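Run: sequence + heme C -> complex structure.
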Amino acid sequence: MKIPRLLQVVLIFVGIYVAFKVVFGFVLGQPIPSSLLTMYMFFVVAGLFMVFTFTDESTRELVAPIKALVEDPARKPVRNVVFIVVPLLAGAYAFNVMLPDFDAPLELRSIHPAPPSTVKIYDQRYDLSTLENPLRKFQKDDPQKFRLLVAEGAEVYIRNCHYCHGDKLDGNGPYAQGLNPIPLNFQDIGTIAQLQESFLFWRIATGGPGLPDEGAPWLSAMPVWENFLSEDEIWKVILFLYDYTGHRPRTWEQE
Ligand code: HEC
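>> structure
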């Protein structure tokens, strides 16, 4: 019995695919990465079509079963089944591809990435190495005013930040468990105690989207606060973070 040419193409294709999988995967123990295999199989398909459509006659023979399926009245039941099953399979494949993937990304994430030297916040360029908290001077100069600013910072915090960073600033807010990476714990000596106020200003104003590449692949949920808070409010909430935790911001002089 002569095998129809279309079936020959399919059989050769499947045969080569299985051979690649078996030879590399099981015999050599070195599976081919799927992106590379896709590329190989693309060339296999291109090669097969070149060979099987070499003459007009061979082309006709190749497409004859497809033509018959679409045109032959006797094939109507088969045609109906094929025209239902193929779109369903394509739909199922597309649906699977679209399902979200909850696995952690493979890349390592840097928790405190090096900040860019200058940043654009509120449409203004800031040099992070010289930027200072303009309200910090009141701690010495006018302690009463300073207490007031800290209290205002606390208000900003409770309104906006405690959902994630927690009402004790320990990173344990009601939303925290749903997030990965988790909101940072400001009580921990590994976070704001190690940082300068300008670093915090940058991180708070530009949030997760403002992270450079080495901090970015994990899709931080930290919002972009320059869209919601004034510059003044960000400096006040920073005063509050240090005041409440008892940490001191890192400064250039200490280093
Ligand atoms: C939707 C949850 C969420 C809210 C609300 C939120 N944060 Fe965050 N924040 C995060 C997450 C998650 C991280 C850790 C990932 C990262 O560094 O971006 C983070 C990181 C930070 C950092 C970086 C600390 C470090 O050690 O690098 C600072 C500072 C910060 N948040 C301050 C704030 C302040 C201030 C507010 C309120 C104005 C706030 N956050 C509100 C989720 C949140």
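>> summary
The chain has a mean pLDDT of 89. Residues 20 and 37 are 8 Å apart (CA to CA).
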